[in-house]
Design brief:
The protein is an alpha/beta fold and 338 residues long. It contains ten helices and seven strands. About 1% of the residues have low confidence.
Length: 338
Amino acid sequence: MRGILRGTLYCALCYGSIVAGFLFIACPLLPLLLFSPPRFRKCGDLLFSCWELYPTALLNVFGVKIYVSGDHISPHESAVLVMNHRTRVDWNFLWAAMYQACMPNVACHRLKFILKDTIRHIPGPGWIMQMNGFLYITRHWKEDQGRLSRTLDYLIALDSRTQLLIFPEGTDLTKSSKEKSDKYAVQHHLSRYTYTLHPKTTGFAYLAQHLQRANYLDAVYDLTIAYPDYIPQSELDLIRGKFPDEVHFHIRRISSADIPMHDLTLRKWLENRWSDKEGILKRFYKQKAFSAEIWPIKKTLPLQAAFGFWSILTGQPLQKIGTLTYIKIMTLNNSKKF
C-alpha cells in the first residue's frame, strides 16, 4: 500500500506539472507564434528544459540514482541521438541523464523525441510535445517521410541546433518484441540478441542523410541505458511505486566526419552499432556498471528551485478546484436556509 501511495504521488506530480505548465505557461505563449516563430521556439525550448529539471528532482527525492558515463553532449550541436529502448518508461529517466550529460552547463539543450503518432493525442504531454516541435511517425513510410522532411527543413530554416532522439528498435524490449526480433535474425542470418532488438534502419538513415545534405549534422550520440536491479516495464509499475534503485547511461559521441553518407552504408553502420551495444550490455549486466568513471552530479540548487516552482504551480489547479467546490457547497447550504 505504501508503494502504491508513493508511486501515485510521483506520477501525479509529474503529470500534474505537465498539465499545469501547458495551461499556465505554454498556452499564453501561443500568440507569440503568430508574430515571431523563432522567439516562440526559443521560449518553448526554454520552458521545456526548465520543466525537465522537475522529473530529475523528483527522481532524486524518491531515491532513484542516475549514473552517467562516457562522452558529454553539447547542447549547441545539431545531432541525432540513438538509444536502445529497454522499457516503455526509459524516457522518464532520460531527463536526469541529459541534465548530467550536457556540457557546458546551459539551461536549454533542445532535445526532441521521434515518437509514435498516437502519443500526440495524450492530454497534456502529447499537446505540449506538439507545441515544442517533437516529431511523430505513423509507421507508414510515405507519410512519415513527408513529416520528417517538413520538420527538418523547418528546424534548419530557423537555424535551430536541435538534438533529435530516435529509438531505432521501434518498440521496447518485451517477450513478444524479442520473438519478432529473433525471427528477423533467423530470416536474415543474423545473431540473436538478448539485451536489445535488431534496429530498424530506415528512419535513422533518412534523418542522417537529410541533415548531412544540408550540412547540418555535427554528430551522432549513441546512448545505452541499463537497469542493474529492478526493471520497470511500464507506467503501471511506476504507479505501483516499483522504482529501480539505479539507472545507468553510457554515451558515445561520433563526429559527423565519421558517419557514412550513403544509404546502405548508413544502415550497416547502425546495425554494427547495435551489435556493439549488445556486447556492452552483456558486460554491464556482469559488472553492474558501464565504467568506473561516473560523472558527478551537478549542482543541486537548480533542482531544488525547480522542485519548489513546479510543485507550487502543480498545486494551483487543485487549489482552484477545491475553492470552487467549497463555494458551491456553501452556496447550496445558504440556499437551503431561504
